[in-house]
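Quick log. Single chain, no ligands specified.
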Amino acid sequence: MLDPVGRVAMVSGAARGIGREVLRRLHGSGWLVSAGLRDPARLPHTPDMLVHRYEAEEEGSAEAWVAATIARFGRVDAVVNSAGINPMARLLDADETPHDAMWRVNVKGPMRVIRATWPHLVASGEGRVVNIASLSGKRVANENLGYAMSKFAVVALTQEVRRLGWDHGIRATALCPGFVATDMTARANWPREKMSRPEDVAVLVETVLRLPNSATVGEIRVNCRFEALA
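-> predicted structure:
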């Protein structure tokens, strides 16, 4: 397992949900953490944590966040793309606004962060990328086609990071949970007490970040209810 001490991880969507628990987990395990979120005032600033504004829809925001991380810590070893949105976007809806919003935030957002961190991940020699996808990125099980399409794209993005980065020591994982007890699933038709916990998802994130180059995991499905595996 890789020693996290001295390694730098960037976590988007760090103000809430899975991103917040990933931030807590990594920070508590000795990582130097750069937290990206819309409102930096929502997190405390500490010497071993950078809290920086990051707006996934805004061009240049990812690059500014990465530049600030390099200025503070001098390196980036891992990226956890957790920021995401989930408005309803059905196939037969004439209004494509929610489709477009999810493409900008859920797909182009992480792509831009990865692109901006790429030379630093290469320099690390053991660069890691974890993209929080979804079981909706593996199958379509409800009417929110737009969300599923965006998460299918995140899985594809992860596969390309693995392909392009392999010889540079970059390893990427698509983490695909089902229902997780966060504000995003507040209206889900599944008992909240039976949902996966965000802190348990964070354990999986830290685990794959610490695996050596010779033991990489490309994809993890996380179920809180039974689903047959394809």
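Strands lie at 8-12, 32-37, 49-53, 78-81, 128-132, 171-177, 219-222.
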